């Protein structure tokens, strides 16, 4: 396995591990839970800005970023649902939170799990805005990769023609 592939596997495995193993109830210490959620969101913001600063974006890096973002958003939704159950309807487990996040980010929106409270609605609004920005970045990265591939093939064809 290449170092890049190992990095990708590590990102996916650690994201799933953290998502399912990070405790939600910390002796009713909502400040600590807020700090943990805030640190996760800051780490996600750092990962996003790092990707945006790169000149050449890799498709798989963006996919990994979306994977991590979905799990961070799902975790924040789950924390909110555990701390304030009236914020969401139908969100009872971490898997419910991940399902809701993926359905929301994919713009499918089945409606079986939905935000009810103001905090949950604001969180979902932020998730949708992130998703729109991410889809635009992914589209741009894909078009740049296609353009780069065409330019490379054109250069090779021209070079072969000159020989």
Automatic annotation (TrEMBL):
Compartment(s) of residence: Membrane
Residue intervals passing through the bilayer: 9-25, 31-48, 60-81, 122-143
Descriptive protein name: Potassium channel domain-containing protein
The keyword Membrane belongs to this UniProt entry's keyword annotation: yes
Annotated GO CC locations: membrane
Signal peptide (residue range): none
GO molecular function: potassium channel activity
Stored InterPro entries: K_chnl_dom (IPR013099), K_chnl_Slo-like (IPR047871)
Keywords attached to this entry: Ion channel, Ion transport, Membrane, Potassium, Potassium channel, Potassium transport, Transmembrane, Transmembrane helix, Transport
Every Potassium channel domain range: 67-146
Organism: Rothia nasimurium
SUPFAM superfamilies: Voltage-gated potassium channels
């Amino acid at each position: 396995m290449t170092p890049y592939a190992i990095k990708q596997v590590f990102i996916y495995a650690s994201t799933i591990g953290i998502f399912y193993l990070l405790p939600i109830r910390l002796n009713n210490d909502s400040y600590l839970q807020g700090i943990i959620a805030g640190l996760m969101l800051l780490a996600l913001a750092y990962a996003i800005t790092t990707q945006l600063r790169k000149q050449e974006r890799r498709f798989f890096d963006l996919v990994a970023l979306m994977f991590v973002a979905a799990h961070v958003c799902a975790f924040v939704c789950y924390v909110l649902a555990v701390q304030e159950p009236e914020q969401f309807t139908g969100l009872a487990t971490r898997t419910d939170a991940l399902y809701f996040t993926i359905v929301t980010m994919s713009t499918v929106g089945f409606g079986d799990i939905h935000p009810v409270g103001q905090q949950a609605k604001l969180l979902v609004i932020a998730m949708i805005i992130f998703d729109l920005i991410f889809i635009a970045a992914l589209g741009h990265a894909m078009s740049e990769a296609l353009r780069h591939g065409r330019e490379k093939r054109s250069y090779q064809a021209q070079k072969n023609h000159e020989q």
